[in-house]
Amino acid sequence: MVLLVIIVPIEVAIFGTNYVERAMAGETMAVDFWVQFVLPLVAVLLFWRYGKGTPGLMAIGARIVDVRTGAPATTGKLLLRALVLAVLLVLSPFLIGLIGLVWMVFDGRKQGLHDKAAGTAVVYDD
Asked: How many domains does the chain have?
């Protein structure tokens, strides 16, 4: 919902109030990719890098760390984590995506496949 407050005005500013019709005609795909995928990805990476987690993680006193050192995760690890998570979310209607996200329920460290792939973990501050 927070992203809609940012995305909708951008899309309307670019395409006007007939955005939906233009989107249905396939005229907005290139801009949609940048505004609806790349922009949120960059925002999440910035939150992860400089806030140590998304606002939701910060609200519950959690942060993303390198699983081996316990130090804040590097930008490279966070980028890999984001890309794997994006792939899992795209695949989520299919079995592999669902397994990747539900995996953390059964994992001893509560790591999803995106955390396993990137070597990161979410830890809670005491």
From this structure: 2
